[in-house]
């Protein structure tokens, strides 16, 4: 008896806080104007994707006091954009990254509960922490928290937010919320939380939303991040989009669920993935090389190298050889707490390896960064890409993918038009939405279904 094929989950990431997008391409549009967000969302919904995802940038990326040349110049507020998109879509999930380091549980819970009402049950929250010292300078707290403190705060932040979401649930709340009558007495919304990071009490003023709570996403790759996801999240983003690495991540995270009393299907694993399509595999491969070179300018290549060397390399020619000096491992890192520090725990060894690669291949600094950096995950003709995506999901390298096009906002169109129909023909992706909420799309149960204290009838 053959094994039943898994259904693929697909989502779309509107790029905007990284240099994935090729802004120099004539087809590229605005990442500020609402028409771009609307076009992107409508394409994702036309393709029956589970959700649209917005990342968050609380400060423009900079180094040495200069903004990255290929980085975003500004980003609208996530909640404002998602609320506006709720009005121009009907089924598409709306997922936003909101920081737990520089926000407060009450305001975030209130915003997500409101979005869930406005969208008819389509909201999702990607819970993240912050490692950026320069981001912290925008906020009254300042600085950045050590990793163990970040996750401690994030865990209590989510616990507190859930208490607020659940404060309108209980025996004293009427089941028929459609009538607009919610109370038998004055208990609804009352909450008290006493903890290490938060000491609050009061009344939550947004009634129970269609999903009860927003769908919870988590994006950390550290051991703490994986545990956080296994204990509390509905889905986890993964940066592993190769088959072998994806399978290892999938196996590790799924194995952590049992200790929290959770089943294998109660946490979805969704790697982010880029793609380049062509009429043939060869055409797509050539286009992918052009895209990658457009994504890594000379200035970007030098900034990337500075993360390892921990030195100002602005005097070096990006089209010339790698620096012959060693990385500075004694001074405070120039990135001041940024994520890339964790990627290169032994800068001296990385520098030696990169020099050897560059010498053997006659690579310049820019060539090296292009060749050793992230590649497009799925490259080929539509049939090739559809087949590869399905192979990855069936081999448990993920439960689906969050697709990141290199053109905004129209880069998703070709995937929707040429790849999605092939997946539908294979019977591994929906032909239409079967439910109305994001929990329906993802196959997740409503939080109230697991409760024993049912509402009054």
From TrEMBL:
Binding-site positions, FMN: 97, 151, 222
Coiled coil feature spans: none
A molecular function GO annotation: oxidoreductase activity, acting on paired donors, with incorporation or reduction of molecular oxygen
UniProt keyword list: Flavoprotein, FMN, Monooxygenase, Oxidoreductase
Occurrences of domain Luciferase-like (ranges): 25-395
InterPro entries reported in the protein's UniProt record: Diverse_substr_monoxygenases, Luciferase-like_dom, Luciferase-like_sf, NTA_MOA
Family the entry assigns: Belongs to the NtaA/SnaA/DszA monooxygenase family.
Name of the protein: Nitrilotriacetate monooxygenase component A
């Amino acid at each position: 008896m053959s094994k039943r094929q898994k259904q693929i989950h697909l989502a779309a990431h509107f790029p905007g806080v990284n240099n994935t997008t090729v802004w120099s391409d004539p087809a590229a549009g605005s990442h500020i104007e609402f028409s771009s967000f609307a076009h992107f969302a409508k394409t994702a919904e036309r393709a029956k994707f589970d959700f649209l995802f917005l990342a968050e940038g609380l400060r423009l990326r900079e180094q040495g006091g200069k903004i990255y040349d290929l980085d975003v110049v500004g980003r609208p507020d996530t909640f404002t954009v998602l609320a506006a998109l709720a009005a121009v879509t009907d089924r598409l999930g709306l997922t936003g990254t909101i920081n737990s380091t520089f926000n407060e549980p009450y305001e975030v819970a209130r915003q997500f509960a409101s979005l869930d009402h406005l969208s008819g049950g389509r909201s999702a929250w990607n819970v993240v922490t912050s490692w950026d010292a320069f981001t912290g300078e925008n906020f009254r707290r300042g600085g950045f928290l050590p990793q163990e403190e970040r996750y401690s705060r994030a865990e209590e932040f989510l616990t507190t937010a859930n208490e607020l979401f659940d404060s309108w649930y209980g025996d004293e709340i009427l089941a028929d919320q459609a009538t607009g009558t919610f109370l038998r007495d004055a208990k609804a919304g009352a909450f008290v939380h006493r903890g290490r990071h938060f000491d609050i009490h009061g009344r939550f003023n947004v009634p129970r939303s269609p999903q009860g709570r927003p769908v919870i996403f988590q994006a950390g790759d550290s051991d703490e991040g994986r545990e956080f996801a296994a204990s509390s999240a509905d889905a986890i983003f993964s940066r592993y989009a190769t088959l072998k690495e994806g399978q290892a991540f999938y196996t590790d995270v799924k194995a952590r669920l049992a200790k929290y009393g959770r089943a294998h299907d109660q946490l979805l694993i969704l790697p982010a993935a880029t793609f380049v399509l062509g009429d043939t595999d060869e055409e797509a491969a050539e286009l992918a090389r052009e895209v990658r070179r457009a994504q890594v300018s000379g200035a970007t290549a030098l900034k990337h190298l500075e993360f390892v060397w921990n030195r100002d390399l602005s005097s070096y020619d990006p089209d010339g050889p790698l620096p012959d000096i060693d990385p500075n491992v004694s001074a405070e890192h120039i990135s001041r707490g940024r994520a890339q520090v964790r990627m290169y725990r032994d800068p001296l060894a990385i520098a030696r390896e990169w020099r050897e690669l560059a010498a053997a291949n006659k690579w310049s600094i820019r060539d090296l960064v292009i060749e050793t950096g992230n590649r497009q995950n799925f490259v080929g003709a539509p049939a090739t890409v559809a087949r590869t995506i399905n192979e990855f999901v069936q081999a448990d390298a993920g439960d689906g993918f969050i697709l990141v096009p290199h053109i905004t906002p129209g880069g998703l169109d070709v995937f929707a038009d040429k790849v999605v129909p092939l997946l539908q023909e294979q019977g591994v992706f929906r032909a239409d939405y079967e439910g109305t909420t994001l929990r329906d799309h993802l196959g997740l149960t409503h939080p109230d279904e697991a409760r024993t204290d049912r509402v009054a009838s």
